[in-house]
């Protein structure tokens, strides 16, 4: 992909702004924040070798823990039992680094992806900036979590796939293989990352099915690519579990989820010396753990005061209270708060534009009318609509407790919808609209940034930012 010097400048600006927003106050607070009670402990379990259970694939935790191992800290004395626990050493900084780096790089990938979608440079830059100034994405990337890495790998796979389609020669193959690897990595963070692979395969099959000349060859190529994606994905998925089992040989807090035959393979377990129980092999452990992961995702019925329903996410009806601190210990001094609260300008404008485009797309598709858009515009619109729905509608079928952060991938597609909408304007109106949206988004980002970074707020200042009662 040959870059105009202006595109290179856009990348440099996006990287500088993204690095500044993501690494400002890096490491603060030095306490357990929200889901770090799980992911921090899971990462540290690879140090002790104590078996744990999680409903997500292990690769993300393996990567975080492996990077933390570079710190030279061989043990982690942090309890991780509750939000607000103080970290006992600097290992948590290493655990937080990769999610923060992934969040830093995501706006660059979004810019490159929108260029590949053949948006103008201006709206592509706008899309990257909106990701930079999206408070909820920023919050999630600054803690020990998998979501920012999932988004980075997922959207990288889309960018690499489109690069494959628009390239020739050896580079074309390299892009395809790289796309298959990153799509697999997204799925290995959380199963919801499968949506990116699904979007790629749907695009490939739709392209082949609508080919007028050489449809058999096109379909054959599509199936060969699907086989590549699936085989690479399965290989990486299986390798992650093999490493997971090798690094967790001891009995631990996850034993209770597994059968006696599984537990017999863990040193120190109550069944380890029972000669009447036959231990599972590696493949048997792989199958049992995946079965338990599926059942945990399907049957988790625990409630949470900050959970939310899928249909409320575009309106940001229920943000998540992540952490509260008071460094001075004096109750009369301002407290610090971290909320998973998005940028209202981005959430609400993205939701409104996306809804309008979806309704238009559905109407035009169902009525088989001729769209006012060009063929390229219609393909871009279809990519955005299907991408949004693929990352949003599956949650309709999930009965377990869910949170606003499950909307992150769909939120990014709503940013693409904003870019698509603005790109349909004339040059003068487009420039004015870009300036207005960026200025508004940046102002909202600054206003809500104390709840993003956890800087002190008085009760009055906190109440001023709680625009609705269900935000508390």
Written description of the protein model:
The chain has 472 residues and is mainly alpha-helical. It has one domain (5-248, 300-471). It contains 17 helices and three strands. A three-stranded antiparallel beta sheet has the order 1-2-3. The longest helix has 33 residues, at 215-247. The N and C termini lie far apart (47 Å).
Largest sheet: 3 strands, antiparallel
Derived from helix and strand composition plus strand pairing, the structural class reads mainly alpha
Distance between the termini: 47 Å
- Helix content class: 55-70%
- In total, how many domains does the architecture comprise? 1
Strand segment tally: 3
Percent of residues in beta strands: under 5%
Rough outline: globular
Order of helices and strands: HHHHHHHHHHHHEEHHHHEH
- Distinct helical segment count: 17
Low-confidence stretches: none
Q: Roughly what is the average pLDDT, rounded to an integer?
A: 92
Strand order of the largest sheet: 1-2-3
Q: Over all CA atoms, what is the radius of gyration?
A: 23 Å
Give a brief outline of the structure:
This protein has 472 residues and is an all-alpha fold. The protein is built from 17 helices and three strands.
How do the helices and strands line up, and which of them pair or pack?
Layout: H1 5-23, H2 36-48, H3 59-69, H4 91-116, H5 121-132, H6 135-141, H7 147-165, H8 169-189, H9 194-209, H10 215-247, H11 260-263, H12 282-299, E1 320-325, E2 335-340, H13 344-367, H14 375-390, H15 408-423, H16 427-453, E3 456-457, H17 459-465
Antiparallel strand pairs: 1-2, 2-3
